[in-house]
Design a protein that fits this description.
Beta-Lactamase; five-stranded antiparallel sheet; 7 strands
């Protein structure tokens, strides 16, 4: 031990070294965070900017700390709203999972979730820190999932329509075949001069038309609609069938 150093001086030196090591460790931890960490003083000046914040915003840390203002990092009104929420959160001065946007160097709006806290010194606000989680990939996945769900629903609808059409055609075909057969029999046995012939012929021809419609219903494989009576939508049998 240096004879000129008192035990107190030595303790203070060791404490200072320990504080420097702790600060260096905290800085490495913050820099290694996968999420952006940005701290601003109450004037809006950036005082902490980790590597994830650089990747998120395309600003360098040195550049951000040297002169980046929170007003350039967040859209108009976001900082004021965030600080109002923090101060309204009681003694903890913290909000979590809030969806906002940040601005990149190119003025691109990036959706993020933010967890933010006020920082105090002797019960006085001195700064606030925000942890920003990029939501672009998550939103992209959600959109793809929504699209997949919509396609699945559409596929299920198509299958249901085809099954229903097949069942309806099967059920209608049996009584219609009987009607068509008896109408044809009556028409063959009734002289053309008989007053009832015209009515029997109409029954036969309309039955044939209905049979063709039933055949089309049986071939329905997809959900295609057309307008009917104003805003009402009905299945378009011709478009919905396999030719």
């Amino acid at each position: 031990m240096d004879p000129e150093r008192s035990p107190r001086d030595e303790a203070e030196r060791e404490l200072a070294q320990e504080l420097r090591r702790t600060q260096a460790l905290l800085e490495r931890l913050i820099d290694s965070s996968p999420d952006a960490v940005v701290a601003c003083d109450l004037a809006g000046r950036v005082v902490l900017f980790n590597k994830a914040a650089e990747r998120l915003t395309q600003y360098g840390a040195a550049e951000a700390i040297a002169g980046l203002d929170a007003g350039r990092l967040y859209p108009e009104g976001v900082v004021d709203d965030l600080l109002e929420r923090l101060r309204g959160a009681g003694p903890v001065g913290r909000v979590e999972g809030l969806r906002i946007e940040v601005l990149t160097r190119a003025a691109e709006r990036v959706p993020v979730t933010v967890s933010a806290s006020l920082l105090f010194e002797a019960s006085e606000e001195i700064a606030w820190v925000a942890i920003l989680v990029d939501q672009r990939e998550r939103i992209s996945i959600e959109r793809r999932l929504t699209t997949a769900e919509e396609k699945l629903k559409e596929s299920e609808k198509q299958a249901m329509i085809a099954e229903l059409a097949g069942a309806a055609a099967h059920e209608l075909n049996q009584p219609l075949t009987s009607v068509l057969g008896y109408a044809d029999l009556l028409r063959r046995k009734t002289p053309a001069t008989d007053p009832a012939f015209r009515s029997i012929d109409i029954i036969y021809r309309e039955s044939e038309r209905m049979a063709e419609i039933v055949r089309k219903i049986g071939r329905i494989t997809r959900y295609e609609t057309t307008t009917y009576l104003g805003n009402v939508r009905i299945v378009d049998i011709d478009k919905a069938t396999d030719k």
